Amino acid sequence: MFSSPTIAAPCLIRSPVANFSTDLIVDYFRAPKCEQCSGNRGIELQLQRGQAIFAAADGVVSFRGEVNRTKYLVILTANNRRITYGKISVSNVRAGDRVFAGQKIAESGESLYFGIREVVDGVAQYRDPMVYLATNSKSAKRAVLISDDLTSDWSGFVGIKNPLNSQC
Fold first, then answer.
1. Domains and CATH numbers, the chain
2. How far is Cα 72 from Cα 19, in angstroms, rounded to an integer?
């Protein structure tokens, strides 16, 4: 009997904004050739100022602050992924706060930077967020049920409000 090799699929995350579509993207991911090289380490979305920003996965806020006068939030997930939200105007959470997928964490400026960084073999690597978004056409072939109800009792998933994101 033959078996096919197991390939680990990336986790699926929630969109950081309501009504996400690729029409909102004004700058796509471009992997830098080196750590200091140019590129775009995430995607940039054109939004209306004050639009709600939601946690893409369960995790803990590891950073909230400014870098070069730009406000950022970073959420560290259970699998050591760092999800970065940049160019926010107002934050609803602080460093150390536990957040859940779908929870409002901030409000946007006129755009939003959204990036994912993960550690592979001890090296931090930037990843294309489109690969992880449940709304991505590559992922659309899979049936994915994501609850918007953050009050649901997810029996068997201690401390996790949305079991889909427990793998992130």
1. 22-31+38-167 (2.70.70.10)
2. 22
pLDDT tens track for 112-168: 999 999 888 888 889 999 988 865 444 333 333 344 444 444 333 334 344 444 445
Q: Which residues contact 91 (CB under 8 A, 6 or more apart)?
A: 64, 71, 73, 105, 106
HSE at residue 7, side-chain half, CA atoms within 13 A, is 3
129: part of which helix (H) or strand (E)?
helix 129-132
pTM of the model: 0.75
Q: Which residues contact 154 (CB under 8 A, 6 or more apart)?
A: 160, 161, 162, 163
Phi, psi of 54 (to 5 degrees): -115, 150
Read off the pLDDT of each residue in 6-29 and give the average, rounded to a whole number.
Answer: 79
Distance CA 19, CA 65 (A): 27
For residue 112, give the amino acid letter.
Answer: L
DSSP helix/strand/coil, 44: strand
Max distance between CA atoms of the chain, in angstroms, equals 60
pLDDT in tens, 65-75: 999 999 999 99
Cα gap 89→108, rounded to integer Å: 5
